[in-house]
Write a structure and sequence with these properties.
By secondary structure, this protein is mainly alpha-helical. It has six helices and two strands. The chain has one domain: Winged helix-like DNA-binding domain superfamily/Winged helix DNA-binding domain (Arc Repressor Mutant, subunit A). The chain has helices spanning 6-19, 26-33, 37-49, 74-80, 99-125, 128-141, and strands at 53-56, 62-65. This is Rrf2 family transcriptional regulator.
Length: 153
């Protein structure tokens, strides 16, 4: 099973958008993520529907945040992306009638649910501004200061 990087990628994009004065086009974001602008528009649509970003067409258009980074949690973004799978563990189904397999699957599923609840609880407490603050500290350690508004867009 292949990993799903949409959450990480959209957190990256949103933090950049929070530092930009002007809108970022789907093409600019796509270059940053090394993907296609259509993928950007499709992925950003869920964030737009939840009211975290807006898009404008035409010259000077593009994507902008509608809320500040301290008003958006990791959980907000995760839910806007329609809750992608957090863990790649899946239950076996080779011997559906085997009591050992049933017990193993139930134990794994219970543990997965508990781990997911803990992770989502943590997501709810983390704001995008927390991540942006960590970025600012890293810039400061490199001696680059906080003047870098568009680090890699």
């Amino acid at each position: 099973m292949r990993g799903d990087s949409r959450l990480s990628r959209m957190l990256h994009v949103l933090i950049h958008l929070g530092r930009r004065k002007e809108a970022a086009t789907s093409e600019v974001i796509a270059r940053m993520l090394n993907t296609n602008p259509v993928v950007v528009r499709r992925t950003m649509a869920g964030l737009r529907e939840r009211g975290y970003v807006q898009s404008e067409k035409g010259h000077g258009g593009g994507w902008k945040l509608t809320r500040s980074l301290d008003q958006i949690s990791l959980l907000d973004v995760y839910e806007a992306l329609e809750r992608p799978e957090l863990f790649c563990l899946v239950s076996a189904s080779d011997h559906a009638g085997c009591l050992v397999e049933i017990s193993v699957n139930e134990a794994l599923e219970d543990a997965r649910r508990e781990a997911e609840a803990v992770l989502l609880s943590r997501f709810a407490t983390l704001k995008l501004s927390d991540i942006a603050g960590d970025f600012d500290k890293r810039l400061e350690m490199l001696g680059l200061g906080s003047g870098m508004q568009d680090f890699d867009i």
